[in-house]
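Thread: Newbie trying to understand structure tokens

Hi all, I'm a second-year student working on a class project, and my supervisor (Dr. K.) asked me to get a predicted structure for one chain before our next meeting. I've only ever worked with sequences, so writing a 3D structure as a token string is new to me. If someone could post the tokens and maybe explain what I'm looking at, I'd be very grateful. Here's the chain:
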Amino acid sequence: MKERLKKMFSVSPLKITVVVTLLALTLFLLDVPFLRFMELKALDLRILSRGKIPSGGETVIAVIDEKSLAELGRWPWPRTTIAKLVDILKIHGAKAIGFDIVFAEPDENSSLKTLYELTQDARKIGITDKRLRALLGEKKALADNDAILARAIKKAQNVTLGYFFHISKKEVAHLTEQDIEATIENISGSKYSMIKAAKNVNETAIVHAYAAAPNLKQLSEAAENSGYFNAFPDSDGAIRWSPLVIKFRDTYYSSLAMSLLIQYLDWPMCVLNLGEFGVEGIKIEKMEVPTDDTGRVLVNYLGPAKTFPHYSVSDIMNGRLSPDKFQGKIVIIGATATGIYDLRVTPFSTVYPGVEIHATVIDNILHQNFLKQSWWIKFLDVLSIIIVGLIMGLLIPRLKAISGIMISLLFIGAFITANITLFSRYNMWLNLIYPVLTMLAVYLVITVYRYITEEREKKKIRNAFQYYLTPSVIAEMLKDPSKLKLGGDKKQLTVLFSD
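---
Reply by user tm_fold:
Sure, no problem. This is what the structure looks like when written as tokens:
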């Protein structure tokens, strides 16, 4: 019994391998923040090593850049300028126009303010002339830049306005319930109208908003559609995911990229799928959009800034560009000028225009070019941790120190190469950090174990034979302790006797 228990609790390379592999699996399932961070950085390196991928060509960006500010004046521009831009893009044949900008406050127009003051003064001094009042009304209509922009948007019939949600309670502490309710009507264009839900939906994973910061009512009513442009960075500040679903009150809303795409595709059937654990993806006609439980899609960045064509707004306004550049395109209007630049950190750059993230998401969906990280990818991750751990555990004890190091490095290198190849060719995001750490840990622990046990064995040999054998013989025995056994060896020998 004692021998059996002793054997059961004895240490061996195989048992070490099993323990280390199980520990690695436990850490993987717990999703340790530091190791998760390391995997995200490894993902960034894989995206960089893959290089630039050409965009599909459906999306272009009208940028408010330094050149535009120099020629058209400092930001914010009068809404009449924005209205003219919408008119030109519509004339040039843009199929869908999106604003990565929110027009939440009325335009500051001194002429309109003066006309309002004249109207008030006329009432105070008792001027009731109908013709004067009619004239003032006409002038106010002509001077109302927001109304001018609203008319341009309504005429275009292809504009999607951007807005954002307040995700923190602190951000809406100053708002009353009436204020919050008043914003709902202005974002109604971006709600998901078709929802396929399970009986019991766990909505805790889905992002919940406390209020919206929408566009002016007259602009929202004139626009065909709207969508939020909230972004949620990872722990290192980089944007790797794009939220396609946010819940506000009892309604689910779509992002700017999703709303623009729906408009571009001529309002196809769009279904939000909700399962027991949260969002289970979005279906646009026959196109599937894979998301995580929170409703986020993993952004498959195609390249650095300007992967999508950038056209200066000033060039558009001044007729320097061919209309063909916008014919049938999705045109997203956003800022890249210093001071109003929507800077984002991405795998390609720490200075990346946020407007291009919307373009990337649209391109990913249109061409079904997603980074794959579904449940079966997770299963492969678990399987790879087990397999590489066991292979290392079986190899290392059978190899000498130098050959063990060489084989281990070759095996790790082969695994990394295979991982990068699967990512580059098939968009498979297989975990890299945990399997590599498992291999390193198995190698190190077994090597340390072998060193300790071999040193212990050598010490026994020294202590046993130091009084009976010469140091040179003991040294020979220490080179291969396995030769030290009872019974001797049977050999054919020739003995020469001579006087």
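A couple of things are worth pointing out once you decode it. Residues 433-465 form the longest helix (33 residues). The chain has three domains: 2-49+373-480, 57-107+147-366, 110-143. Feel free to ask follow-ups in this thread.
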